[in-house]
TrEMBL record:
It holds the Pfam family MMR_HSR1. The lineage of its organism: Bacteria, Pseudomonadati, Thermodesulfobacteriota, Desulfobulbia, Desulfobulbales. InterPro entries: DUF3482 (IPR021871), GTP-bd (IPR006073), P-loop_NTPase (IPR027417). This is G domain-containing protein. It comes from Desulfofustis limnaeus. Residues 4-144 form the G domain.
Length: 468
């Protein structure tokens, strides 16, 4: 049995927005004008080529008071009450939308009743709730506040408790992945017979999300590999203005990196089914900043503590290698010097890139200039944080937020550098990955991506479970 959930309510309460967000479907027609939905439309949820759940968008109630009065007069309820209303509304034009909206209920669907919790309950709302209670289908109510107004919530909660098996606050314009799963989980409580099927649906959703996270980590790892091993050249003949050629080469390099990043983000976006509408980043997003700007590197690069730790570890590793090669005659001197050099290099990563492009490997090699592979591990952290930030934007950009232009940007907490909370073990994974890329670039060695990919998957999943 494929469970069907009808989204029901008064016109312009946000039914289509709730459906679009739950189904992750950009094709749901959403309009700020009431009464735009006049026919039922079903949206199947397909995972691994298998339909596991279907949501049905319905027209809004037009005559709930009259329908309730008729149902009371007939003395019928449940299935017989549904058939009575079906027969009553089938041949009367004024009941056309009411007739349409009860069709999924006749098929045995459950229902989510959507109300705008930012306004007070009205008599017509009470009639709709009582009507649905008498029809007896498995039901849940969703308080979808269309404005930042909470003073009517206590009145709504009192009303909903009387008429529904369960109710939830759910903002269709801000709902995160975790909140969508919470709502689906709550649906299991509306009918005991549905629990096994809905639990299987939730399990399929979670499995599908893990697959998307793994693919996202693959995309980010590929971006890191491509950028951190990127090498570009510029011929430099006697008499040429070397400074101008360096600037030109740096510009080519930065453009190439930006194009690679945009390609990766274009690959990430359809994973989360944003196929039609453009995601608008909030004005304060750090993704608007130039990838190579000083501010980007200060906010998304390594912290001072991390730089000192990584610089010490990285330089010490090189120095220790020198000591071994000298059969111990260095008496640890190279280790100490290596650690100091590593710290200096790491700290230099905070300087402006164009002013010190040697951090990106810019140098004169014979008769030509070369830039790359990047010499500063800070670029890895800047890239990682920018992709994690983009990931958080797209997974939390609710599909149902299209009908409110003034809210059409993401309003999540100010972005932090996600990597600032990474442990020393995590930093070592990054360092090993960075060094592996350098060996690969120099000697063609294979790059070990599994630990880095695992670290990214862990962080992406943590971001997925954030709540707004």
């Amino acid at each position: 049995m494929i469970p069907e959930i009808a989204i029901i309510g008064h016109p312009n309460e946000g039914k289509s927005s709730v459906l679009s967000t739950l189904a992750e479907d950009d094709s749901v027609v959403i309009s700020p004008l009431p009464g735009e939905t006049t026919r039922c439309r079903t949206f199947p949820i397909v995972i691994d080529n298998r339909e596991i759940l279907r949501f049905t968008d319905t027209p809004g109630f037009q005559n709930p008071v009259r329908l309730l009065a008729e149902l009371k007069r007939s003395g019928l309820s449940g299935t017989s009450g549904l058939e009575h209303l079906h027969n009553l509304t089938s041949s009367r034009p004024e009941f056309r939308e009411d007739h349409e909206l009860i069709q999924p209920l006749r098929r045995g669907s459950g229902l989510i009743y959507v109300v705008d919790g930012s306004r007070p309950p009205r008599q017509v709302d009470r009639a709709e709730m009582e009507l649905l209670r008498r029809l007896g289908r498995p039901r849940m109510a969703v308080l979808n506040c269309k404005r930042d107004e909470e003073r009517f919530l206590p009145d709504w909660k009192e009303q909903l408790t009387q008429h529904f098996n369960s109710w939830r606050l759910f903002n269709a314009h801000r709902a995160t992945y975790a909140e969508r799963i919470d709502l689906l989980t709550a649906l299991t409580s509306i009918d005991q017979d549905w629990q096994p099927v809905l639990n299987a649906v939730i399990s399929a959703f979670e499995h599908d999300w893990q697959r998307r996270v793994k693919t996202s980590a693959d995309i980010i790892c590929t971006l890191l590999t491509d950028v951190l091993t990127l090498k570009l050249y510029q011929d430099c003949r006697p008499g040429d203005d070397e400074g101008r050629l360096r600037d030109r080469l740096f510009t080519r390099y930065s453009r190439s990196v930006i194009e690679m990043e945009q390609t990766a983000q274009q690959q990430l976006r359809p994973l989360f089914k944003h196929n039609i509408f453009t995601i608008r980043l909030p004005p304060h997003s750090l993704l608007h900043e130039d990838l190579f700007s000083e501010r980007t590197w200060q906010l998304l690069g390594l912290s001072k503590k991390q730089m000192l730790l990584l610089g010490s570890l990285g330089g010490a590793a090189v120095g220790a290698g020198v000591d071994v090669a000298a059969l111990g005659h260095g008496l640890g001197l190279f280790t100490v010097l290596g650690g100091a050099a590593g710290m200096i290099t790491a700290l230099a990563g905070r300087r402006h890139l164009k002013a010190d492009a040697s951090l990106l490997g810019l140098r004169l090699a014979g008769s030509r200039l070369q830039i790359g592979p990047a010499q500063s591990i800070s670029l890895l952290f800047v890239l990682v944080n920018r992709q994690l930030l983009f990931f958080r934007h797209i997974i939390n950009w609710a599909h149902g937020r299209r009908d409110y232009p003034e809210q059409n940007t993401i309003d999540l907490p100010t972005a932090d550098a996600f990597t600032r909370s990474w442990s020393s073990t995590d930093l070592r994974v990054c360092q090993a990955f960075f060094q592996s890329l350098h060996r690969s670039s120099a000697a063609g060695d294979l790059v070990s991506v599994e630990p880095m990919q695992g670290l990214l998957e862990k962080t992406l999943m943590q971001i997925s479970h954030e709540r707004g």
